[in-house]
Design brief:
Distance between the termini: 54 Å
Shape: elongated
Number of domains: 1
Number of strands: 4
Number of helices: 1
Strand order of the largest sheet: 1-2-4-3
Strand content: 35-45%
Structural class: alpha+beta
Helix content: 10-25%
Length: 80
């Protein structure tokens, strides 16, 4: 399977109290089949913890994809 020519760019956003997400934007070429794109997104979800936030298909056939994953912050524990 070939890799998608993607332009990742991860950003962070706070959407509420104590809930933070990291976003990654991808641009996927129109030359890739639907099955290849599906496999790519499934791999990212299974191995990177990403979930699909938005997928937009442009008139020229390219796909703009926004993935997100929750940022889990560890709280410091008090030692006595």
């Amino acid at each position: 399977m070939s890799r998608a020519p993607a332009q990742p760019g991860a950003t962070r956003a706070r959407l509420g109290p104590r809930v933070e997400y990291e976003f990654e934007r991808l641009t996927i070429s129109r030359d890739l089949s639907r099955n290849v794109v599906t496999r790519l997104l499934i791999d990212r979800a299974e191995h990177g913890g990403w979930e699909l936030d938005r997928l937009r298909r442009l008139p020229d056939g390219t796909r703009k994809v926004v993935l997100r994953r929750k940022i889990i912050r560890q709280r410091a524990t008090l030692l006595f």
